[in-house]
Design brief:
Radius of gyration: 13 Å
Distance between the termini: 40 Å
Oligomer: single chain
Number of helices: 0
Number of strands: 11
Length: 124
């Protein structure tokens, strides 16, 4: 069982930046960030493998950067040029085994472990 704890959320004006962190209690092959806005389904934002391969949703490309420190089992998300439509609860996710790579990187089914979520609010 891997526990995930997010930090770093908050409120920012449009065009601003925030950095999210996710501390994991152990190693996992793949980690990702998902978000869920009110009334919408949870969507994949970005993911990163243990080897550093990254995937981004089109909506955040060139604005968000994902990274991980394998020594610290910590995942990061640097969010720049934030827009009001980025407002959502952001969830950290981690896979359990390499076999979960049957699913694509931004598919929720790839990930077994989830953080409690953290609010990000971008005002115009």
């Amino acid at each position: 069982q891997v526990q995930l704890v997010e930090s770093g959320g908050g409120s920012v004006q449009s065009g601003g930046s925030l950095r999210l962190s996710c501390a994991a209690s152990g190693y996992t092959p793949d980690m990702g960030w998902f978000r869920q806005a009110p009334g919408k389904e949870r969507e994949g934002v970005t993911s990163i493998s243990s080897g550093g391969t990254t995937t981004y949703a089109d909506s955040v490309k060139d604005r968000f950067t994902v990274s991980r420190d394998n020594a610290k089992n910590t995942l990061y998300l640097q969010m720049n040029s934030l827009k009001p439509e980025d407002t959502a609860i952001y969830f950290c996710a981690a896979s359990a085994t390499y076999y979960s790579r049957t699913y694509t990187a931004l598919d929720t089914k790839r990930y077994r472990y989830w953080g409690q979520g953290i609010q990000v609010t971008v005002s115009s």
